[in-house]
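Late entry, flavin mononucleotide complex.
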Amino acid sequence: MDEFIDGAIEAGISVVFTSGNNPEPFMKQLKDNDIKVIHVASSVRFAKKAELLGCDAVVVNGYECGGHPGKNDTTSLTLIQKATQELSIPIIAAGGFSTGKSVLAALALGADGVQMGTRFLMAKENQLHQNVKEHLINSTEIDTIMVKKSIGKMARVLKTSHAIELAQKEEHGAAFEEIFPYISGESYSELIHNGNLSSGVIALGQTIGPIDDIKSTAEIMEEIVDDYKSRLLHLTGGRTIPLQ
Ligand SMILES: Cc1cc2nc3c(=O)[nH]c(=O)nc-3n(C[C@H](O)[C@H](O)[C@H](O)COP(=O)(O)O)c2cc1C
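Prediction complete; structure with ligand written out below:
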């Protein structure tokens, strides 16, 4: 981590997102270098701690998200609202957002912005192997599964037969050595670079449901903005409200 922080400072990065652990050890160095720190939190408690530590904003990650949703199984719908009641710093909603409508919903709940992960797996620019992307076109909101709970790193991933096997092993109390081959960097690389769906596990959110195409990042952004505007227009009975 120290090397990453030094590298970010050297490169003149202006915003750093921290996640997965307490950002406290790095706060002083980052703030001394005028870097804004945004911490990713999976609970209101952790989000409040981040605010207390001087973070400039937080991402709150709900249960639907691809990757690590934390231990409380709290959905975005609840988490965002509660976070807005408890925090004064800006809140970026994450977990379940992939369309303009869902961005509008996040803002309606009080969020100041949205972070998307799953949507951009399906960006043309994403180097994820085409096999996996094409498989994801036909995946729905029920095609994710929780794994790595037994090692305290619960993550929502694409439900493949390989991931199901891993979850079953964990349920039966498999030792770390037994589950390691499923989650190793090598098996992940085989999945994302060679498109082998019988290897590795890849983070994926339930919001893969509404996503059914591969587009460029620019096209995805355009589609999100158009969808946001048309839904807002619908909700306001045709009155135009400027997009902020
Ligand atoms: C393939 C993939 C990899 C991710 N890797 C990380 C990561 O390394 N660190 C992190 O904080 N979040 C990671 N995330 C979580 C995203 O940053 C984001 O919070 C999450 O995907 C939001 O939920 P969504 O998937 O419903 O959009 C990852 C998500 C995906 C889909």
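The radius of gyration is 19 Å. Will revisit in the morning.
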